[in-house]
Design brief:
single chain, mainly beta, 5-stranded antiparallel sheet, 5 strands, 8% helix
């Protein structure tokens, strides 16, 4: 059976990913770049810092496209 961790393991380090995971009171997402994965957790570099998520808490994970290019400011 293909687990969420298996899908993450197939991605190269530096891939842009979104990881949905359980927190107290619900779910949240970590959107950023895959830093690493071990037997118990995944690390994602987000805009606000590094997030370490226990694999047991991961509910969904996938690779996502690069962010859109920023538009130049007019004015």
């Amino acid at each position: 059976m293909d687990t969420r961790a298996d899908r993450l393991r197939r991605l190269p380090s530096g891939s842009r990913v979104v990881v949905r995971y359980r927190i107290d009171g619900g779910l949240t997402d970590a959107l950023g770049y895959l830093l690493g994965l071990d037997d118990s957790s995944v690390q994602v570099q987000t805009r606000t810092g590094t997030v370490r998520v226990a694999l047991a808490d991961v509910r969904a994970a996938k690779e996502v496209p690069p962010p859109p290019e920023r538009r130049p400011r007019s004015g």
